[in-house]
Predict the 3D structure of the following.
Amino acid sequence: MYVSHLTHLYHTHAPHSVVPAEFELVRFDADRDEVFTLSPTQGIIPPKSEVSITISYMPLGMGTYTKDRYAFRTPSQCYTILTLKGLAMPPKVCLFKDTPPGQLSSSPQRLLESAGSVFMEEEGSPLFSLNFRDILIGKAETRILYLSNDSEREVAYCVMGDEQGVFQMTPKHGIIPPLVKQFPVKVVFRPIKPINYYRRFFVLVGDALPLFYDCIGTGYIVARGEVKEQRPAPLRHAHIQAYRNRVVHNFGSLSPDELDTFYENETVPREFFAQIGRVGTKAMSVTTLQRPVTRTGDTVRNLVAPAHEFFIEQSDGSAREVVVNR
């Protein structure tokens, strides 16, 4: 059963009696909020007849398991036990990207599943990373992201991004119809300065844990007259992952000079720095299991991690920017 989705079941109560039978529905476990709604809860059943009981189930939180017991009781203290069970499941929404121009891949589908596993492409960048590469200032480049809704209910989504940012998404929010495999979201990169740009965007999904994707791009200026060409060194996802690896081990605030000294130390893991080649720089903080469940068992830890990162406060030490004066 999907979260916030109403389901109706029907139960027939038919006593074998030649006289009318009065009944009342009594709930056994009354120490918590009621998730199931039954109607009618009392009445009179005609002789040798039956009454249909409508049971409505609408869970409010994903991963919650509910078990309730009800009793059909008569004035003569005869009763019949009715046990109801329900499990709330989040809608299955996936995120995958389109192939950039000039970058063909033999993989027919590059999918970021809500299972939380991280898969790598041929050039070492993960499936949730959009690299716009070098874009001339004043120009724009477009990529396409797709959302897939494999559930039988419509799902609301919202991309958390700035209204006037260099990365623009259209549409930023909306409703994904049921069983839609390709719901397109256009991502436009329009640089305004000759610098490297990087931003992680979170996609909030109704009644489910959030998804995310990374956007990387570089703006540059060509030489014209007295103006020299300004083209920063290319930024790859390997640089982003190497920084995240250093942050995990409390080395995220190192200055460039300290990084040079750090690099010359042969005992330092190579994953602290961007690697060259198709393998790329792998994440150091990973799980040995593909789907490690949480303690409560309602979801997997790979899905909880983006939600935790989304709620990090700006005042948190791990979210502070490092400013280097040269």
User: Anything to note?
Assistant: The helical segments are 237-248, 256-264, 301-310.
